[in-house]
Design brief:
single chain, alpha+beta, PH-domain like, 2 domains, 4-stranded antiparallel beta sheet, 4-stranded mixed beta sheet, 3 helices
Length: 160
């Protein structure tokens, strides 16, 4: 039987707002400004919007043993994180995160996206940057934390 996804997120609303704003500006500028300039200004606005606010916009698909991150930007390669060898996670929340439900570190460097660092059994880090819908981040983090805790093996100390 094929492995079914536990959770699939949707694209952030900011991504769609950027496209709509670009279309509105394009129609406005095509009416008011001559042809070459009417293409340049909406392109600049869309590029600014996409490089800042929608930078790491993605869809996450969480399976029982892995996470697949599908970025909406073509220059970000899609990532697959295998959860079976991960020991713990560390979350760096964005600057505008008003949620106190999930514990994480606030960093001013990450203005419009969050970072999830996975720590495997050899203490090596694997980091993914995500920008998901407003209400989905806590659900995603809860599911990932549960999956990682299920795979965690207790550390056994030798008594000398």
């Amino acid at each position: 039987m094929k492995n079914k996804p536990i959770y699939t997120s949707k694209a952030p609303i900011a991504f769609y707002i950027g496209i709509i704003v670009s279309i509105i500006f394009y129609t406005f500028f095509i009416i008011k400004i001559d042809f070459p300039d009417s293409l340049i200004y909406p392109s600049i606005i869309f590029s600014f919007w996409f490089f800042t606010i929608s930078r790491y916009s993605c869809r996450l698909t969480i399976y029982s043993d892995r996470i697949i991150v599908t970025y909406l930007a073509f220059w970000h390669p899609n990532k697959e994180v295998i959860l079976t060898d991960k020991n713990s996670i560390d979350v760096r929340l964005n600057y505008w995160s008003f949620s106190t439900r999930y514990r994480g570190h606030m960093h001013k460097d990450y203005i419009f996206y969050d970072q999830i660092s996975f720590i495997n059994k050899d203490n090596k880090y694997e980091t993914i940057s995500i920008n998901v819908r407003i209400g989905q981040r806590n659900t995603i983090l809860d599911i990932i934390e549960r999956r990682v805790n299920q795979n965690k093996q207790p550390v056994r100390h030798r008594i000398k």
